[in-house]
Amino acid sequence: MKESPHAHHIKLKFCISGAAETGHCAPDALEKTKALGRAIVASGSVLVTGATTGAPLWGAIGAKEAGGFVIGISPASSEIEHVKKYKLPLDYHDIVIYTGFGYSGRNLFLTRAADAVLITCGRMGTLNEFTIAFEDEKPIGVLIGTGGMADELKELLNKAHRGTGRVIFDSDPEELVKKVSALVRKDKITDTSA
């Protein structure tokens, strides 16, 4: 297949999924998640988050520190609702898309908008995003050692008896992004002339 001269400029989109409330996260989860955001930018990709607090915001901070571009997908229908009703931040995002779909609808939109989902310390919403991505056969990276759902998913996959899907586990943010990027690139169209 010949590579399209126009497809090479399209950036990969990585979602960081993790807990908005991070009291149960591992002590170094903040630094590891910021490193995950930096690794996404270093790979030439764009970060997509749920435009929320906690772990996704940590990833956004890391991405912006590295000079990256961050897109937020909000559960709210407007900026006012995002800030006043949901009490979510606007900081560290270049664009926030207001879905008006609430959290469950936002989670579906968020995971489908990304080329891959990267899981860090998380709770129920993170589990929801993981299962959506798993059912959609999307590449998933799990940053183990960050606490919460990230450290439970391997066991949950074993108990589910559905195989491991396209899930990669690693404790190193840079290695995780490299491995997941390789999986994502297998899904990309390289010849647009057909």
Tally of individual domains: 1
Mean pLDDT, rounded to whole units?
Answer: 93
The CATH class label is: Alpha Beta
Shape: globular
* Helix run count: 7
Helix content: 25-40%
Keywords for this structure?
194 residues, alpha/beta, Rossmann fold, 7 helices, 15% strand
Describe this structure in words.
The protein is of the alpha/beta class and 194 residues long. The chain has a single domain (24-185), classed as Rossmann fold, CATH 3.40.50. The protein is built from 7 helices and 7 strands. The protein has helices spanning 29-42, 55-65, 79-85, 102-113, 124-135, 153-160, 173-185; strands at 13-17, 46-49, 70-74, 95-98, 116-119, 140-143, 167-170. Strands 4-3-2-1-5-6-7 form a 7-stranded parallel beta sheet, with helices on both faces. It is globular, with a radius of gyration of 16 Å. The relative contact order is 0.19.
Please outline the helices and strands:
Elements: E1 13-17, H1 29-42, E2 46-49, H2 55-65, E3 70-74, H3 79-85, E4 95-98, H4 102-113, E5 116-119, H5 124-135, E6 140-143, H6 153-160, E7 167-170, H7 173-185
Helix pairs in contact: 1-2, 1-7, 4-5
Short description:
The chain has 194 residues and is an alpha/beta fold. Helix content is 40%, strand content 15%.
